[in-house]
Each structure stands twice: as structure tokens, then as C-alpha cells.
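Table S7 (text form). Paired inputs.
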Amino acid sequence: MARTLILVFCLFLVAGCASIPRTGGPKPAGEISAQELCRKYNIECRWDPVSQTITMFYLNKKIQGMVGSDMVVTDKNRIALSAPLYRKHGAVIFPPDFERAVFGPASVPQEDYVRGAQSGRLRKVVVDAGHGGKDPGAIGVGGLKEKDVVLDIARRVKKDFEAAGVTVVMTRDSEDFISLADRTMMASQPDVDLFVSIHANANKTRRANGIEVYYVGALSRDDKGEDQRLANEKKICSLYNMRSDIPDLRAVAMDMLYAYKCAFSPGLSDAVAQGLAHEVPRQSRGSKPERFFVLRNTLIPAVLVEVGFVTNPKEAALLKDNAFRQRLADSITKSVLRFVYASGI
């Protein structure tokens, strides 16, 4: 027993509590350390000092490499590098071709997708904090109210977007009750690019847990003729100064908007779900189509994020925690920016 404890203690000293070895000393041109790589792409990295293996998670891809080997495994694929991984002054060093070979030519560093937003690829986002005022939303463990949780997270998302140079419109930034119709109307502006709605889940079964993201499913003819959708279409057409005496023109324009929304929203939803799965320590319930009012009546790409179950004791405790709320907000924002930059809208 004593020998085992000594061995474990030595491993902690060598591994630095299993954290990624730190960078030390100059490196040849083009090489990059694990610490620099993880910071650059804002990704999760895990270092195993016993096997000398590093594991990274980037855009739903698991990547593993071993010191001394020039082969990297990504899911079920093996990629040969120009040189093996090695350690220098305690740091794991990757060869110059690692980023392009493993992450791909379209890899997007954190600073790049923020720069993409600042350059105008993403102009304005409507951030929708669900419920509010007389509508508390779901009420969970210890009286935790959905409306309070999601308003705080939405405010944090707003700050993150603004830090990246994106203008944000909040459907509500206070306790006020805002109708679903008014929320979709706020998104019916020519310069609004995306609609991000934030909610918290509930279930009679206290064991239900996890985070899920929704996008609009296929709309029926009745959905497309819904009063609120028609009102939003009329508003945006008037803002575009579209002639009202040519009904076919309006129909074609709205069909184009709907086609774009349907094409873009699933990928955006997947990206947010994947980002949350990698960066937030909760079960992922995935990305799913749904006909929620704010999804089917907004005319632009839209997602609705359920950040956890207020009825689950563990998740309710997390949702009360400021650090966890910030982690959720950061992940949502970064996932949106990353996807928008990669999509080139």
C-alpha cells in the first residue's frame, strides 16, 4: 500500500496533476506545443503521463497522439505526420504539419472566428431569454425558476457576442413578460442574422438530465400561413421597401428566406450541441428538429437551447452556479461564431 501511494505521488509530481505539460524553451519554426494548440483553438486536451498520450476534442472529433509516434488517430482514421511528437522541457511538441493534416485546411482558431465576426460576417443576433414576468417557465428543485436562470445566461451570451464585435438585441433584459409573437417580431429586421433562444428543461422524472438544442422542423402549409408568420413577413417586406402590389415577388422572397433558414439552422444547431457536449460536463441530448413557436415563426436561422433540467437535483445545483452559467454562455457563443465563420455567411 505504501509503495502504491509513493508511486501515485511521484506520478503527480511528474505529471503536474495530469495537466498538459507546459511550454519551455524555443521550438523550431512551425512546431507548436500542446498547451499553445489547446489555447489557440479553445479545445479540451487531456494528458496521460503513464502512456505519454494526449487526447484532444475538436469539432466533434476525438484526436489522440503519443510521444515518440508520428501517427495520430482521429476517431477511426490514422494520419501520418512528418515527424513524431516529442517532449521538450516537459512540453509535448507537435510537428509543423499537424494542424493542417489533423484539423484540416478549414481549421478555425479562436482568434480567427472572432475576427470573422468583427469583419462583418455576423452583424446582429437576437438573444431570447425564455419566459419572464408572469410566466416563470419551469419551476425546479428548491423553487429554481427557469425565467431567472435563462435571463442570466442570456445576458452573459450578450456580453460574449459584443466582445466579438456582434450587435445583440435582447428580447427581454428584465423581469418583463414578452409575448412569443413580439419575440419573433424583433427578429424580423433586415440586418438580423440569427435568433438564439435560451431555455431550461423540466421533467416529472427527476433523473432526466442533459442539454439539447432544437432547430425548426419542416413546416406544413398551415404553418406557413400562420398569422404571426404572415405578420412578420409583411413587416420585413415593408422594411425592404418591397412593392406590395406584386404578391408573387413577396412569395418568392419568403420562399428563399425559408429555404435558407432550413438549410442553415440544422448545422448551426448541431454545432452548438457539439460545442456544449465538449465544453460543458453534462450529458448531451443532441440536436433535434421541432416546431416551437419561436422557431417556426422567425424568418431567419434560429436555434433553441435547453441548458439543463431544473427538476434534476444535480443540474439544478449547477444552474445556480455562476461559473457554470458562464461556461454555458461561452460555449454557446463560441459555437455560433465558429460555425458562422466556417460557413462563410
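Next pair, protein 2 of 2.
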Amino acid sequence: MRLAILDDYQNVALDLADWSRLGTDMEIKAFNSPARDEQLLVERLATFDIVIVMRERTAFPRHVIEALPRLKLLVSAGTRNASIDLDACERVGIAACAAQGSSQGVAFTAEMAWLLILALYKRFPHSDRALRAGRWQPDLARGLHGQILGLVGLGRIGSRMANIGRAFGMLVLAWSPHLTSERAEQLGATAVDKAELFECSDVVSLHLVLSARTSNIIARSDLCRMRKDAILVNTARAGLVDEQALLEILRTRRIAGAGLDVFWQEPLSNEHELCRMDNVLLTPHLGYAIRENLASFYAHAIEVVDAWRRGEAVPQLQR
């Protein structure tokens, strides 16, 4: 059998786990660059029986899945992957399975969100560039104490964000479609409606799961409610936000800036408009790309492949 590992950008997949557990009859190939289009993706994978994908880095829509008749097992990091057409997999008999990453994945994503918040507030990138160019203190930093943190989503990551926000001395507001005041209070936040959160917050940080229900849940009207000195941080999924609306808000400097670790098309092209904006801090989806996290995922992926080959039950991707 042949197994493909996609989007191994750092060339580490084969070293982070013991692939020999799959036996000498399993041929394994890791790809360290993304397919430039769907036709190339199909050509790459035409001779593979098993494909391992890292979250939503590579999309598998219906027409791609139907063009891969040899493919029998698709293993994805995490319990959900919105970029895989699960109905198409079911129709053609592909098992679409989940492999867990590290149990500390929640902490890693929250760390990334706070890195972006602090870097924007303390003007780290701009000050670093200025200092190297011979300019001293080009801007004043800002303090987080006494500021308002608005969390869109108060689940495992959002609640961790709330704890850290309070440690910085911030007031924490929260909203999600089904959040109750009682639940928010238990987690140290105040539940408000979406309009109030965007109007009042100094920092808005997104922590919802992307689904058909939450796609573009952050609309132009929400972004327009933000204060001129507020920032938006997204370490969740780009699809939560109306892309064109956010670009316009940033282009016209309606808000102070944004910190983005996720994008509508990944990898992000360096020709994208975001790369020319000086009020945006960009990181290449690093909230998930942690050595411990990837090592855990690949180890669990090997377990899933091994169990599938033996005909045992394997964890299915959730819809």
C-alpha cells in the first residue's frame, strides 16, 4: 500500500513518529509543498491508498475525491475538517477518520493569540524594524491593564483566553450563539450580545468552530461597530470573517489593526493584499504548528491506519 503525508512544510513528519510500525509493505511519501491547483493534487495522489492531511491545509471537495478511485482512507488532524466533503467520501467508500493532536493544543492556540495581541499592543514588529534602521522609539506602546477583551466563543480556548485576560487586568466580555450569562459568569466573563461586544471591546479575539452555521458570522456590520483604536485577532478559522469586509476595514484604517494566524486560502500568497498592509500582523497558522502537537497527531494517525488495516473501528471525522 502507498501512504501520502500532505503539507509537511518543515520536512519533519517522518522524524516525529515511528512510521515503521506500519510494516515494510507500506510505502510512505511526505510532500513538503502544497499542490498549486486541484489538478496537480489529483496527479500527486493518484497512486496512493491512504492520505494523511493536516487540518484544513489541503481541501478535498467532491470532484477531487471522485477523481481518486484508489484512495480508501483519509486521515485528518482533529475531530473536524471543514475542507473535506464527507458526503462524497461516504458515497465512494472512503473512510474519513480523525487523529488527535496533543492534549495541550488548546494552550498552544491561546499562546498564539496572546502573542499577536501583545505584539500589536507593544508595537514589536514595527519597533524591531525601526531599531534595525537606526530609528529609536518610533511609536508608543499600549498597556492591556484596564482594557476590554471581547471573546467570540467561550469554549476550551476561549475560556483559557478569559483566564489570561483577567491575569492582565482586563475586563472580559464574551458572545457566542448559545452562550448563557450563567456559563459566562462561571468562566469569569460577562455575556453580552454581539453588537455590544464589537462596540465596547479594545481587543476582539475569535474562538469559534467553523461550520455552515458560523461561516462569515463576523459580518461587515460587526466590524464597522469596532472602535477606531481596537484590534481584531483571529487564530481560529478565516472563514468566520467576511474576507472582503475585513480587507476594506483594514484598508481604510477603520480599526487600529489585526493579528491573523489563519487565512481564507492557505498558504497565503505573498501577493495577497494583506501582505502589503502595515496595520496587520501575519503569522503562518502557527497556533497549531507546534512540535509536540504534530508529533502527537502523527503518532495517532499511525494508530488509526494500523487499526483500519486490521478491520477495527476507527474514529470518524465529525460533521
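The first helix runs from residue 13 to 16.
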